[in-house]
Every structure is written in C-alpha cells, then in structure tokens.
Amino acid sequence: MQIVDDFCADGFVVVRGAVAPDVVRRCVDVIDAELLRRAVDPRDPTTWTEPVVRLACPEGPAFAAAGTSSALWDMYDALLGAGRWVNRAGVGGTVPVRFPSTRDPGDAGWHIDGSYDVDGAWWINVRSRGRGLLALFLFTHVADDDAPTELIVGSHLDVPRLLAPFGDRGVFFGDVTRKLSASTFHRPRMLATGLAGDVFLCHPFLVHRATWPHLGTGPRMVAQPAVAIHEPFALRAGIDVCPVERAVLAALSGRAH
User: Fold this and answer.
1) pLDDT tens column, 62-86
2) Count of C-beta atoms within a 10 Å radius of residue 59
3) pLDDT for residue 118 is more than 80
4) C-alpha to C-alpha distance for 150 and 147, rounded to whole angstroms
C-alpha cells in the first residue's frame, strides 16, 4: 500500500476532505462562539490583539462527527492496526487559533509532542506511551501565508535512537529536539497546507513547529489532537507490527535514513 510506505518514509500522510464541509462549518461555529466568550470576534480584526488564542477543542455533535470520519478511521486502522487505537467520539486536543500578526507567538519552536504526564510535565518514550499519531485537523483553509504547521520530512526516523536510552520512563519532550543532530534540521520540510476538512496524520516522533508571521487575512483554526493507543508499542519485530511501529524499529536497527 503506497500511502503506508510513504508514511513510513516521510512520517505523515494527508487525508484530503476527511471531514465533510457541513461538519467543518458546524465546528467553526462552535469555535467562533468560544472566541466570542473571550471577547475575540473572528470577524472583527480590532479584537485580534494576540497572535494566538489557544482553546481546548470543544466537544459536542459537530466534533463527534469530525472525529469519527470513516476516512480517518480507515487510516487509523491502516497505520495503527484495528482495535489498537482509542475510539473517541470527538476530536480532542487543543485548537490554537492564529490571527494575522507579525509578532512572535512564543510557541514556534521545533518539537515533538509529549504523550504522558510526569510530575506535571509532558514526557515521551521510545514506545510512544499513550500516543499513536498526531493529527492536524484543518478547520479553515490554510495557505502558505496563514502560519501553517511546518514538518521536517523523515525526522521521525532520527528520534527513536535518541529516546531508546531513556527506557520506559522516557524524557521531557522539550529535551528531545535539543539533543537532535544538525542533520535532522537539514532534511526537507513540508508546510501543512490545505483546505478546510483536510487532516494530516503524523508519526508521533515527527519534528514540527508552528510558523510565523501570519500574513493571511483571517483566523487560522487547526486542532492538533493525539490519536491515543491502548498499549505502548511493543517494538518486537513480527507480523503484527503496525506501520508506526515499523518506522521506529527501522530507525532503531539503522535500516532507515
């Protein structure tokens, strides 16, 4: 399956049109209402005083419909294995709403996302405890000028050997990119652009960052939840190894570049 092979090599796939347009509109209406409760009007630029406003992704019927898209569930099965990921009637995660601005938003550094809590901080381990994928749900159109997320293609193959010495306890997520070699940052890069309803599915070890400035004309809304897994990856070669795990094993064995 070519899309799975591309995922193992690049660290992400894009499911275009994963969320239906009417569902996207209903989700955006709810996000708009949340912003208005914070005195931010998505249609009034005079209220856009901060470059980013971060919301917990709302719950409710619209987001349940977005999160249970059959196109996404089929891809979760393909990348993680049927029955291994947590079936959630919603999207989850956070929605950083980014507004046109030339100010540094303060959250634009390279990183991989943490998966579990250790003493109030987000940590990650080589078995990816708690997280099977990072999803990027585009609820608005995102073009090059709209502060898209930037991905380092293939960087998920550099992270496992760095994490392995920390064992099951893992390491604070913020320490990971500081330990990566310069070669990671010389890899090709990709902007997560597309139309509202597109969803990027990323390997949990893919290095990424927010970009700025936002030179577009309106708010950019992207949810960024984890796709949770019931059990950490076993990291034992065999017939039940899913593509996410396969990429980790290839990196640990030195077969991936």
Assistant:
1) 999 999 999 999 999 999 999 999 9
2) 14
3) yes
4) 9
Cα radius of gyration (the chain): 18
What single-letter amino acid sits at 231?
Answer: E
Q: Where are the alpha helices (DSSP H) in 13-166?
A: 21-37, 61-67, 70-80, 159-163
- Alpha helix positions (H), 149-199: 159-163, 173-179
- Token pair belonging to 184: 């990671």
CA separation (Å) from 82 to 86, 88, 230? 10, 14, 11
Six token digits for residue 245: 């795990």
Tell me which amino acid residue 73 is.
Answer: W
The DSSP bridge partners found for residue 171 are 124
Contacts (Cβ under 8 Å, ≥6 apart) of 155: 11, 180, 184, 187, 205, 206, 207
Is residue 112 within 8 A of residue 208, CB to CB? The reply is: yes
